[in-house]
Amino acid sequence: MQQEEIDMIMEEAQEMMDKSIDHLSKELLQVRTGKASPAMLRGIMVPYYGNPTPLNQVANVTTSDSRTLVIKPWEGNMIPAIEKAIMEANIGITPQNDGEVVRLNIPMLTEERRKELVKRAKSLGEDSKVGVRSARRDAMDMLKQAVKDGYPEDMGKKREKEVQDMTDSHVKKIDDMISAKEKDIMTV
Predict the structure, then answer these.
(1) Domain of 56, in residue numbers
(2) Which of 16 and 184 is assigned the larger pLDDT?
């Protein structure tokens, strides 16, 4: 097996581990912390001239304070569609409109709800770690096969250690992200 193929295995493992971390950061944005954030509405689709369109492409989403999101549609006739889309998204917040904008008042989180959110964040972290370990396992299997196929054993061991170090650093990054989110959720 050629050096380029080994380098490719390493790059692929790095890429898969990075994807796990990117996915986790996107998922953590969806976990509400009791503070208003336009990211909470990411993924909500609004029917716009018959086509499902992301909310942020038909309206301006801003925070007026730490507990209120303001959605100002670019076309006034979009308000009912936006309200309906938010209700259907089932994010636990009832939209209110004044004819010009839609307001979402984020309720205070109860202690019980905070604990549920921390559990959810930890679960997302575990899922990401599974992705990282899966990438590690695949890379290790390929490296072991490469050694069997004639790649120098000492170089194989060195590369396996690199994969393990890569895994450890990604797992630590995931742990750091989860503990930061936990702190954010539990801060009243």
Answers:
(1) 38-105
(2) 16
SS (H, E, C) 45-87: EEEECCEEEEHHHCEEEEEEECCEEEEEECCHHHHHHHHHHHH
The most distant pair of C-alpha atoms in the chain lies apart, rounded to whole Å, by: 72
Task: Specify whether 177 is located in the same domain as 127.
Answer: yes
Q: State both tokens at 126.
A: 């575990």
pLDDT digits (tens, 9 = 90+) for 65-112: 888 889 999 988 888 999 988 888 877 788 888 888 889 888 887 888
pTM: 0.71
CATH number at residue 100: 3.30.1360.40
List CB contacts of 97: < 8 A, sequence separation 6 or more.
Answer: 79, 83, 103
